[in-house]
Structures are given as C-alpha cells and as structure tokens.
Design goal:
The complex is a heterodimer.
Chain A: H1 22-44, H2 63-66, H3 72-105, H4 111-123, H5 126-139, H6 146-170, H7 174-182, H8 187-215, H9 219-224, H10 231-238, H11 245-275
Helix pairs in contact in A: 1-11, 3-6, 3-8, 3-10, 4-6, 6-8, 7-8
Chain B: E1 23-34, E2 37-49, E3 54-58, H1 65-73, E4 80-85, E5 88-89, E6 100-103, H2 115-125, H3 130-143, H4 159-171, E7 177-181, H5 189-206, E8 209-214, H6 217-223, E9 226-231, E10 234-239, H7 241-246, H8 251-256, E11 261-271, E12 274-279, E13 283-288, E14 300-305, E15 311-313, E16 322-333, E17 337-343, E18 349-355, E19 369-374, E20 380-383
Parallel strand pairs in B: 3-8, 3-9, 6-7, 7-8
Antiparallel strand pairs in B: 1-2, 1-4, 4-5, 9-10, 11-12, 11-14, 12-13, 14-20, 15-19, 16-17, 16-19, 17-18
Helix pairs in contact in B: 2-3, 2-4, 3-4
The chains are: A mainly alpha, B alpha+beta.
Chain lengths: ~280, ~375
C-alpha cells in the first residue's frame, strides 16, 4: 500500500512564557494565601508547648511525633475516621459507578427522577440532611454509631461518584462494547476489559472525592455518630479544653498523604499522555 | 504493499453442511415499537450468501441494511424469520457466540489498548495459545501493512491505519464471515479508493465471506460479487454489479444506481421479443420484453437507458433501435467526456454522455436540434406505468 501515512507528530506540552512580573507576583501571593493556614498547622506540630493550649510558639520539638498515639481516644477517633472513609470509598465507588453507568448509557423509566435525586443529594444543605437523618434514625429506633455514620457517608458520597462516572460514560461509544462482544467477550469480560478501563478516570476521581468528603465530614457525622468519635468530632470537642499538638501532627500526615496522591495522579496522567 | 505470506484459507471442520450457504436469511423481519407505533425496519428479507463471496447490501440511509447486518452479527434479534450460518440456525444466539466478526464504521477500537492487544483480543477470548496469538497477530498486521506498529495506541494512528487495525482485529479470528458496516465512510476520497482495492485484495487473500454495507453505489459496484439493493426495509434487486447497473429491476434501482434516464410511452406493437413504443411524431423506443413483465399493445411502459449508451447525432440516422428527437438544454464539459442535458418532445429530460475521444469540438450547442439513438438491447423496461 502506498498511501501509508506517518503517525501524527508527538506534541510536547509547551507553555507560553509568562510575560511581565505582575502575574508572577499575583500567583505567588495566591499560593501563599492558600498555604498559610496549612503552614501554621504543620509548624505548630513541632511546637514545644507546655500549656494545654497550642497557640504560642515556644520552641522546636519532635516530641509530638514520638508520642503521636499517646492519647488513646484521639487515636481511636482517627482510626474510626480512616476506616469509615476507606469503607465509604469502596462502597460508594461500587454503587456510584453502577449508577453512573446506568445514567450515562441507558434510557430507562425514572431516569429523570434519578438524575434529580442525585443533584438534590449534592445540593441539600448538610445541616438539613444531618438533622433529617437523625430524625429518621431516632424514629426507626436505629442505634447511632459507627454503622449509621458509615451509612450516612455512603449516602452523600454516592452521588458524587455517580456524577463523575456518568460524565465519563456519556462520552463512550457504545460500539466499542459491541466490538468486544463481537470478538467473543461475554458481558462480564466486556465490562472488566473494556468498559471499566475506559471509565477508570471518572471512577478514580469519584473515589478520591468520596474519601475526601468522608474523612473530614463534621456536620452529618455529628448528627449520626451517637457515642462514636471521629477525628473531626474529637478535634471540635477538644477546642473547648485545648487542642493537643498531636492533632496538628495527624493533620500534617493526612495532608502529606493527600499531596503524595495528587503527585502520583499527575505523574500517571503525564505518563498516559505520553503513551497516547 | 510488501509481499506477505497469505493466511491459509481455513478448512472448515465445523461446517454443519458443506453445501450450505455461508449466510442465509429466511423471511427475516424486524419491527420496532416507538411512541405506540410499530415501525418495520426490515420487512421480510431472504438472502443466501455463498462462502467466499463479496456481498454488498446497498441502499440509502434508513433502508434497513444496517439492521439486516446487525441481525447477522447477533446485535439485534429478528422479530420473525431465521438466520443461518453455514446451515446452522443461530437465531437467538448472542453476538459473542457467533462465528462472524464485524468492522464498525467508527472502527470502535479499544483506545486503552495497544494495536497488538486490540488485534489479539478475540484470540485471547478463545483461549488460543500465547505463541500462536503472537504469530497470527504478526501475520495479519503484515497483511494490512501495519507491521512494526504493534505497540502504538489507536489514538496515535491515522484514520486509514485505524481502519486497517479494525480490519485486522476482525480478520485474525478467521471468522466464517466478515461484516463491514460502511467501513470506509470516515476516510477521504483518495484513501477510500485505495482502501477499496486493498479490501478486495485482502478478501481474495484470506478467502473469507465479506458482507459489506454501504450507501455508496460506486463502492458496491467496484468491489462486490453480488449486490442486494435495499429500499424501505426490503430487497429491491439482487444481482451482480453488471446486472444491477444495466438491467435495474425497479424504478428505485434505476434511480439509485448511477445516472439513468426514464422515458415512458404507449406500446404501439410487439415484434417478437421486442416492444416498440412510438415516441413523438417521428421517434420510437425499442425495448426487449421481459419474461417477468409481459406487455401488450396499448400498455404504457417505463423504459430506462443509461447516458453512456446513447449516441448523439445531428441528423436522423437510418438504423434499427431507438430513435428520439431532442433539443439540447445544457452542455457540460467533463474532461474525458461531455455531458448533454436534452429535452424530448414529450418533456422528459435525458442525460447523454459522449466520450471526448477524437472530437475537437462539441457535437452540439445549446438550443440545437439533435437525434438520440441507442440499440434495442440497451433499453430496459422497468414497469408498466
């Protein structure tokens, strides 16, 4: 064949050089503004404070890192928060992905209502949702605790996952799944090898959202927790008597993990962009 | 194209009946329900496609050709009728269990997989051994001229290359039939013409039955062994490209395939196997009678004749066959030929192509009185009007 065409030239991402210093100064100030509270949080994790309060700089120490888990109830609260967030992520991602696929791929009776409910769940004020959940749990005599927190978190995260997955699924060519079927793949194999990898970016961002929403949720958790403590609840309660520096350390570590995940995500995206 | 080892034509140990057609449609109908109405997309199609045949389903959009193909592939189930592959009834068998493969108009390549993984997909589903997969994928990529591009992603390839990956991905499975749904529709004209030749060569090389869906009559005429012209959910005519072009069975086929002229008139007399229609004061159309459509004196008959069969003359010639007086309305110079649009006394518009072989000048100019002459065998009766 003589009409063979060469592959399109690979484009290296090229940025326009920034002209003038004004934009640079503005950007630096904005980033500083965003990072300032986090910097304060990290700094006061190293504060050698002697009092119950942790507001005044009294010298550098690694004491709080060494004694991170000394406060048993704080550790329990952190473990609760992390396990609830992890479980919420798994459950909400599975349910939300299926819902998002259904909403993005198929026409069915009640589709409009389902879409509306998704957005209502997102736009509903947390106070309203929290108090109505409490009312429901009280009315049905459900004991409040770990499981009710989990149920509530799954409920409000599922819509976020569904909406990010739906956005991805809408753009999929249904013929690609037909092609897989045509080549001998059954429904499950088609989903595993073709559909899921193609909607994966949506699934991953949905999962990250679910985790982030769950791990630091305060309002809804406060209504549904009963006697169970989570990290945000514990910190809130401690502000009355004095927040120990361990809270800063834990906050720092959670932030560090978040930054690490973001970097991994960016690296993966770059790698994908290179191979595509 | 470099020399490649041809893929051996598969022997068919699994054929239910060696004499059976590769694909057989038996009274296949497909109706949809929409807004309370029942819409028939395909209304009773009977087809029998021979093994190794290049068969085209040709028709305008909405004629049911794609639905027919999707019923062969197993993506749609017929409302009534049977689908048989190699004599085996596969009606109701899902697409992933049918031994036919499809090439989609949008290619439908898996964007997250390399070219190799795309092509190997079907073989892996069948559990073919790793070494054999590597060899077969390599062979087929050689045939479609994509050797060395195994590691690329579809997004890195040009449209023509993606098209050939789609073809390789289907062919590597050595299916009983390959179904192609307007596979060249997204390519530009030059590439499309090159791919037409390529497709035909590949089909000869692999010896697999091709069923080709297209709305492009040129494409169908170029490549097919036989064509089924479809319209409004049914088959209008089934035949070789030559039969369909030269002897269109219906007005629709005459109008859809190429340029054709329609003339009608009253049969003045029947002379043996020919009917003579008097046309105008001193003109006549001679048309062979069809066994399936007998006509007698007094019947009105519609006749079609292709523009390149008509000769344009300035004087009334003395010869047998059809002779019609006309006035030149338009002359269009086309390079290798000149196209004349003329009007007959009956008010019909007729297009005539004349080769620009030797004539330095046009035969006639606008407004000239001319004579149209063509042999009896080039008239074809398409119905009694």
């Amino acid at each position: 064949m003589t009409t063979t065409l060469t592959a399109p030239e690979r484009r290296a991402p090229r940025r326009r050089p920034v002209r003038g210093r004004g934009l640079q100064i503005y950007t630096t100030l904005l980033v500083a503004w965003l990072l300032l509270p986090i910097a304060v949080m990290i700094l006061f994790g190293f504060n050698d404070t002697k009092s119950k309060q942790n507001f005044e700089w009294e010298g550098f120490t690694l004491h709080w890192y060494a004694h991170l888990f000394d406060k048993k109830d704080l550790t329990t609260a952190l473990v609760n928060s992390l396990t609830i967030a992890a479980l919420t992520t798994v459950i909400a991602t599975v349910l939300g992905t299926l819902a998002g696929l259904a909403l993005g791929r198929h026409r069915f009776r009640g589709q409009g209502v389902s879409n509306l409910v998704m957005f209502a769940a997102i736009s509903c004020p947390e106070l309203v949702m929290g108090s109505s959940l409490l009312a429901m749990f009280v009315a049905t005599e459900t004991p409040r605790g770990y499981l009710t927190i989990l149920a509530a978190h799954v409920m409000f995260s599922v819509s976020f996952v569904a909406i990010t997955v739906r956005a991805r699924a809408v753009g999929l060519d249904p013929k690609i799944e037909e092609a897989a079927q045509d080549l001998g793949a059954g429904p499950w194999t088609t989903f595993r090898l073709v559909t899921l990898p193609m909607i994966m970016p949506g699934v991953l961002s949905g999962a990250l959202l679910a985790f982030a929403l769950s791990v630091d949720d305060f309002i809804i958790t406060n209504f549904t927790s009963g006697a169970t403590q989570t990290f945000p609840l514990w910190v809130w309660a401690s502000t009355r008597t004095g927040t120990p520096p361990q809270v800063n350390v834990m906050g720092t570590l959670i932030f560090a993990v978040g930054v690490l995940l973001a970097i991994i995500n960016i690296a993966a995206t770059r790698r994908r962009a290179r191979t595509h | 194209m470099t020399d490649t080892t041809p893929v051996p034509v598969r022997d068919d140990p699994g054929r239910a009946d060696p004499a059976a057609p590769a694909i057989e449609l038996d009274g296949v109908r497909k109706t949809y329900h929409s807004h309370g109405d029942t819409v028939a997309a395909v209304r009773g199609v009977d087809l029998s496609i021979a093994p190794g045949e290049f068969f085209s389903l040709l028709g305008p959009s909405g004629c049911g050709k794609t639905t027919t193909m999707r019923m062969i592939a197993g993506f749609e189930e017929p409302t009534a009728g049977r689908v048989r592959l190699d004599g085996r009834d596969v009606t109701g068998v899902p697409a992933n269990k049918r031994d036919v493969n499809m090439v989609f108009q949008s290619y439908a390549l898996f964007p997250h997989m390399s070219v190799f993984d795309n092509v190997a997909f079907g073989l892996r589903r069948k559990g073919v051994a790793k070494g054999e997969i590597k060899a077969r994928v390599g062979d087929i990529l050689g045939i479609v001229d994509l050797a060395g591009r195994e590691k690329r992603r579809p997004g890195e390839l040009s449209g023509g290359q993606q098209q050939r990956v789609a073809l390789a991905r289907a062919l590597v499975n050595r299916p009983r039939a390959l179904l192609l749904d307007e596979p060249l529709g997204a390519l530009d004209l030059k590439l499309r013409q090159a791919m037409q030749v390529e497709l035909k060569r590949i089909q000869r090389e692999v010896g697999i039955t091709f069923v080709y869906v297209t709305h492009d009559q040129g494409e169908a005429l170029t490549m097919s062994d036989r064509i089924a012209v479809m319209n409004d959910g049914g088959v209008e005519q089934l035949g070789t490209p030559r039969e369909i072009y030269e002897r269109p069975a219906t007005k629709f086929v005459a109008g859809f395939i190429g340029t054709s002229n329609l003339l009608s008139g009253e049969v003045g007399g029947v002379d043996g196997a020919q009917a003579v229609i008097s046309y105008g004061d001193d003109g006549r159309i001679v048309v062979p009678l069809r066994e399936d459509r007998p006509a007698a004196a007094g019947d009105r008959l519609e006749v079609t004749v292709r523009p390149e069969k008509i000769e344009l003359l300035t004087e009334r010639p003395d010869r047998p066959g059809s002779l019609v007086r006309a006035t030149v309305a338009e002359v269009v110079y086309l390079g290798t030929s000149t196209s004349y649009l003329v009007t007959t006394p009956g008010g019909a518009e007729v297009t005539v192509f004349q080769q620009n072989a030797t004539n330095a000048d046009d035969l006639a100019a606008r407004g000239d009185q001319v004579w149209l002459a063509w042999e009896a065998r080039h008239s074809y009766a398409i119905g009694t009007a």
